[in-house]
Amino acid sequence: GSYTFSATAYDGVGNSGSASATVKREDVVPPAVAVTEPLPDAVLSDEVTLAASASDDGAVARVEFWLRDPVTLAEQLVGAATAPPWSIRWASGSAPAGRGEILAKAYDCAGNSATSDPVLVTTGDLTPPVTRVTAPADGLDWVTGAIHVAAEASDAGGRVVEVELRVDGAP
């Protein structure tokens, strides 16, 4: 912002003289930001809330939420809030299954930014598929010739992408 400083001098008969100076204050202080939700070591599935606290000596313009791979440090933007409360809803099942870090990045109106400490979470589709062999029937005593083999599979936490059939452990 800018500030105007002024001074006025008065003499004994009521005359006055004034002067002013205007200066601009450069905002170089980044905002402060911390992830408040989820808690560390949370297991995220389905739609979850990501939330952060953010403050600045001027004003916070937006808070972005990022998912970072703790091994490769690759980051993926998952959403942004442009007004308090600094939170979003996120479909965490869209993330790769495994460990990840949630980060919040806050930006002030002057373009300064800061990144929160990471919060380690487990993300993605954590529900294993349900699989059932439908043919041959379990417990047949004798089979000969060509055998019909079939299976069913479903995944409540996502979608089945492959079903592998094996005989005695071999494909």
Explain what you see.
- It is a single chain.
- By secondary structure, this protein is mainly beta.
- The protein has no helices and 13 strands.
- The strands form four sheets. Strands 4, 6, 7, 9, 10 and 11 form a six-stranded mixed β-sheet that branches.
- β9 and β10 form a beta hairpin.
- The N and C termini lie far apart (70 Å).
Task: Let me know the number of strands.
Answer: 13
What about the largest sheet?
Answer: 6 strands, mixed
Shape summary: rod-shaped
Calculate Rg over CA atoms: 30 Å
The share of residues in extended strands comes to over 45%
Strand/helix succession: EEEEEEEEEEEEE
What is the distance, rounded to the nearest whole angstrom, between the alpha carbons of the first and last residues? 70 Å
Q: What is the count of DSSP helices, taking H or I runs of 4+ residues?
A: 0
Helix/sheet category? mainly beta
Flag low-confidence runs: none
Tell me roughly what share of residues is in helical segments: under 10%
Rounded mean pLDDT score: 90
Features:
mainly beta, three-stranded antiparallel sheet, 171 residues, six-stranded mixed sheet, 13 strands
Structure described in brief:
The radius of gyration is 30 Å and the shape is rod-shaped. The strands form four sheets. Strands 4, 6, 7, 9, 10 and 11 form a six-stranded mixed sheet that branches. The protein has a three-stranded antiparallel sheet with strand order 3-5-8, with no helix packed on it.
